[in-house]
Amino acid sequence: MRIRVVGAGTMGRGIAQWAVTAGHTVELADARPEAVAEAVSFVRAMLERAVEKGRTSRAEADRAAAALLALDSPYATAGDGAAPELVIEAVLEDLEVKAELFTGLERMLPASTVFATNTSSLSVTRIGARLADPGRLAGLHFFNPVPLMRLVEVVPGAATRESLVELLVALVADSGHRPVTVADTPGFLVNHAGRGLVTEAFALLEESVAGHPAIDRIARDVLGLRMGPFELMDLTGLDVTASVMDTVWDGFRHADRLRPSYLPANRVAAGLYGRKSRRGFYAYGDGEAGPSLPEPRIEGGDAERAVRVTGSELAGLATSGATPDDALVLVPTWGTSVAAAVADEGLPAERTLGVDPLSLGTPRRVLAVTPATRDDAVRDAVAVLARDGHPVTVVRDTAGSVAQRLLASVVNVATGIAERGIAAPGDIDTAVTLGLGYPRGPLAWADTVGSARILALLRALARETGDPRYRPTPWLTHRAGLGLPLSTPMASLPE
């Protein structure tokens, strides 16, 4: 296929590299000719590196380099006079700029040329509405870096022809990436799904449950994420994350489970974007691959102190013969708080602490303390939990705990995406694992933990906090009640 890529920045050059490597002829254009020259040099350097690393042959790299053609402007005609079959736009994320580009291209290119926008946040329908034939345009949302991020969201606008969607899905799949078809909604699929983690992380920070390093450690060690939410926001840029949070929340008419925090605004105003500004939630020096997260040390505890527990999940932590007068009391906090357990069960507040059962069987233990917990009880509980060599993170008491709330939010947002029909259940899990790097898709993750258990967690969080953000979706409620996997699609209706 002959593809014209308009926009020679980071995304445009990545798309061009993907396309020529897959065997397509690529015309690369930009409003600035010097940007095209730089992009061509970059792509050819990447092809050379692939040869050096043995990922491609010399003949394949030479063929790909020869298939990359530089144009003087987005509206230029190639030297051989051939028209592109597909135009992929990767210019400034501005509706007017994109619409003007496509209306100009529509006047000069054949009606058979397909148009695709790489927008990550704008409505595909609104961009296409400016065209005489809006049916020829769809979204083709790549992720950075394009050659490595093998996910592409194919986004039909309200007027996009079905045959065009089929063509783009086949093109992406045949060119080595994984297409997922997504409805034209705010944030599409991946950016929408990602709100579950970061909005809840900010909620935990707002409530002073833990500092951002502790939340990141728990997200990585208990949930198995590649990086914690604050590390991730530093990588992508808090200015970008804050904008996406507001766009998705506004677009879905202020849906409670998507509610953003008040915290990012001042940090963005101060220029604390993350790695690109060298300061975000963490500081970054020259050449640093990532933030340093030294483990806090809590010393002086008695690892032999007697322990009694109130839940079967913690049975392995109990000490035989522990007396009520001196023993630590450990309670499991599944959707509930230590304070509620103390009040409901008449437990000694000064030596009762919570253990997140989700952290058991992971590399990290999470311990919750209340304002009534004595300091010696905290030290001793840390020592007890660390006896097997696991690090222990101490957090303030909250309904559930850090990992539970993060997971519950991720699952609830994902089931909301499924419920709205934004994407097929299988595509939701695929997109999240490929696009966000989670250890498993949120629907499969909930099934692994137990959908009934996730439902109970959300109901407990909603009951104890009174916050409607934790209201479980009907998608989760119904499938858990029926004993069905969360990947079960909607029931078919007669036409």
Tell me what the structure shows.
By secondary structure, this protein is α/β, with parallel strands linked by helices. 42% of the residues lie in helices and 12% in strands. It has 19 helices and 13 strands. It has an eight-stranded mixed beta sheet with strand order 3-2-1-4-5-6-7-8, sandwiched between helices. Strands 9-10-11-12-13 form a five-stranded mixed beta sheet, sandwiched between helices. β6 and β7 form a beta hairpin. α1 packs across α2 and α15 crosses α17. The longest helix is centred in the first third of the chain and has 20 residues. The radius of gyration is 26 Å and the shape is elongated. It starts with a strand and ends in a 13-residue tail after the last helix. The model has no long low-confidence stretch (mean pLDDT 95).
Offer a quick outline of the entry.
This protein has 495 residues and is an alpha/beta fold.
State the major sheet.
8 strands, mixed
What oligomeric state best describes the polypeptide chains here?
A: single chain
Shape: elongated
Radius of gyration: 26 Å
Give helix % range. Answer: 40-55%
The whole-number mean of residue pLDDT values reads 95
- How many helices? The count is 19
Which structural category do the helix and sheet elements fall into?
alpha/beta
Per DSSP E runs of 2 or more residues, the count of β-strands stands at: 13
Ranges with pLDDT <50 over ≥5 residues? none
Distance between the termini: 38 Å
Task: Tell me what portion of residues adopts beta-strand conformation.
Answer: 5-15%
Can you list the strand order of the major beta sheet?
3-2-1-4-5-6-7-8
